[in-house]
């Protein structure tokens, strides 16, 4: 449901009535400049929230992304035969079933996801719609909330016993925690470039199917490509540790979480939002 405009698009008489009363029917997809303006407005709204509100909604989003990772591991991570005979297909399965639905849950319910906030709230800051203190509040509160929600879901997934003896969670966690710093950093950049493109495009869609389409392709792509998302890793690596991966908390933080988080910031704030800010906004322009 997308409000009265949803019904107006199905009912010509209601559409006419809306126009006569001064209302308007939202386009299914905003024009590029309007999409950027909408992203700035969304970022400003997020930045205006209290620390506790952002933190609570961050917990919810951490759990949502955790659910997506949980499904990906359960389905795509349980295809050893396909992985051996057709690794490309297994990667597509891993990407298609899981993380996209996690992000959809966050976007349509107003959750606070750190990785998306690196783009939206940064855009609001660069356009003068919020200040630096609010930017930091948004990032820190959402990151902390995401961590709590991810850890909570990792524990529940571990206790549920649904993964049986499947080795995928341990193997994935081990691989992610043994990357060189620069490799993890670059994977973080590439990942959040795609994630924030999904968030950005979805913000410009007024229908549920539009938002789902905007999210599905970039998110399934980043998973299939083997890139790293800090919030997803807050679920995946602790789950792997609980299931026996020989990884220390220090390795998890220094070998993965720190470089991936830094890369996610660059990917969201600069690689994704930077070009649109300079083209449709005021980034880099002198007064």
How would you summarize what this structure contains?
The protein has 287 residues and is mainly α. It has helices at residues 4-10, 12-20, 32-47, 51-75, 80-85, 87-96, 99-109, 114-126, 132-160, 168-176, 181-203, 208-224, 230-242, 249-280.
Describe it.
This protein is an all-alpha fold. 77% of the residues lie in helices and 0% in strands. It has helices at 4-10, 12-20, 32-47, 51-75, 80-85, 87-96, 99-109, 114-126, 132-160, 168-176, 181-203, 208-224, 230-242, 249-280. Helix 3 crosses helix 8, helix 6 runs antiparallel to helix 12 and helix 11 crosses helix 14. The chain is globular, with a radius of gyration of 20 Å. 51% of the residues are buried. Residues 1-9 have low confidence and may be disordered.
Largest sheet: none
SS strand fraction: under 5%
Identify low-pLDDT runs: 1-9
* Cα Rg: 20 Å
Summarize the topology.
Elements: H1 4-10, H2 12-20, H3 32-47, H4 51-75, H5 80-85, H6 87-96, H7 99-109, H8 114-126, H9 132-160, H10 168-176, H11 181-203, H12 208-224, H13 230-242, H14 249-280
């Amino acid at each position: 449901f997308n409000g009265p405009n949803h019904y107006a698009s199905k009912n010509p008489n209601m559409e006419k009535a809306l126009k006569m009363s001064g209302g308007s029917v939202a386009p299914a997809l905003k024009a590029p400049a309007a999409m950027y303006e909408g992203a700035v407005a969304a970022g400003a709204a997020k930045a205006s929230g209290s620390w506790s509100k952002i933190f609570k909604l961050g917990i919810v989003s951490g759990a949502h992304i955790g659910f997506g990772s949980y499904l990906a591991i359960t389905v795509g991570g349980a295809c050893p035969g396909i992985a051996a005979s057709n690794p490309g297909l297994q990667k597509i399965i891993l990407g298609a079933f899981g993380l996209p639905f996690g992000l959809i849950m966050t976007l349509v319910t107003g959750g606070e996801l750190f990785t998306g906030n690196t783009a939206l709230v940064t855009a609001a800051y660069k356009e003068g719609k919020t200040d630096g203190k609010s930017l930091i509040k948004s990032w820190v509160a959402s990151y902390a909330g995401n961590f709590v929600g991810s850890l909570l879901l990792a524990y529940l997934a571990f206790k549920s016993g649904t993964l049986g003896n499947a080795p995928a969670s341990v193997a994935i966690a081990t691989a992610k925690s043994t990357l060189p710093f620069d490799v993890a950093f670059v994977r973080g950049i590439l990942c959040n470039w795609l994630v924030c493109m999904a968030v950005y495009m979805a913000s410009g869609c007024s229908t549920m199917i539009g938002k789902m389409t905007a999210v599905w392709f970039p998110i399934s792509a980043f998973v299939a490509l083997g890139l790293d998302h800090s919030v997803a890793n807050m679920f995946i690596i602790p789950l792997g540790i609980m299931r026996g991966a020989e990884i220390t908390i220090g390795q998890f933080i220094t070998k993965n979480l720190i470089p991936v988080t830094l890369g996610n910031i660059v990917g969201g704030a600069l690689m994704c939002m930077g070009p649109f800010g300079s083209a449709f906004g005021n980034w880099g322009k002198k007064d």
